[in-house]
Amino acid sequence: EAQLVESGGGLVQPGGSLRLSCAASGFTFSNYWMSWVRQAPGKGLEWVANIKQDGSDKYYADSVKGRFTISRDNAKNSLYLQMNSLRAEDTAVYYCGRGGGNFDCWGQGTLVTVSS
Amino acid sequence: DIQMTQSPSSLSASVGDRVTITCRASQSIKNYLIWYQQKPGKAPKFLIYAASTLQSGVPSRFSGSGSGTDFTLTISSLQPEDFATYYCQQNYSIPRTFGPGTKVDIK
Fold first, then answer.
1. What parts of chain A have a pLDDT lower than 70?
2. pLDDT at B73 over 90
3. How many Cβ pairs within 8 Å bridge chains A and B?
4. What is the pLDDT of residue A68?
5. How far is B38 from chain A (nearest CA, A)?
6. In principle, which of A64, A78, B22, B107 could form an S-S bond with B12, CB 3.0–4.6 Å?
7. DSSP E strands, A26-116
8. Dist. CA B52–CA B72, nearest whole Å
């Protein structure tokens, strides 16, 4: 059974950095596009970024472009999100999702809180 | 960017009711439309893709229809476990965009 487990969330000050990880198991990770989707407290879902199977193509939401970097390590079955210059509005639960458009498997999410 | 809207934003229904949720895209997305179900404190669950194809394991009381700009999600007979928030999402173009959600609660 496919499984995704996020980690790395926490409390960070505005302007700070954080790196999220997503560990994949139960499927051939290198065969899939992967994505990050976030959800601010009490709000809806917002796509953040996605990455092609071999890491050669990456796309970002305008709200995070230039500040966030998506990457992957297929040897470790892992997806990452490096978040720099964090803002209060980046506060959210961050989910990793399998797929570049159809997110057919989701992790449980990791909470990122940006506050002083 | 393609904007997604949903109506209603919330509804109250009883077990056994037929429920219909509408999703509209700001431009044609052909059938590149997905529906998710989310319960409080949980990750979204993938229900329907390509506007009308049920994901494996999803009960047949769920159905989707539409193409172009107008789509619907129908629950033919609402069950207690169906009380949740439902989101539509387009995967026609980047950025992927979601509707604001429709909360289905108990009347």
1. none
2. yes
3. 52
4. 98
5. 10
6. B107
7. 34-39, 45-51, 58-60, 68-73, 78-83, 92-98, 105-106, 110-114
8. 9
Q: Band the pLDDT of B107: cuts 50, 70, 90.
A: confident
Q: List, as ranges, residues 2-41 from A with C-beta within 8 Å of B.
A: 35
Check CB contact of A44 with chain B, cutoff 8 Å: yes
B/e letters for A3-41, b = 16+ CB within 10 Å, e = fewer, are ebebebbeebeeeeebebbbbbeeeebeebbbbbbbbee
Q: Answer whether A46 touches B (CB < 8 Å).
A: yes
CA distance A85 to B77: 48
Residue B34: alpha-carbon gap to chain centroid: 7
pLDDT at B106: 86
Quickly state the pLDDT bin for B71 (edges 50, 70, 90): very high
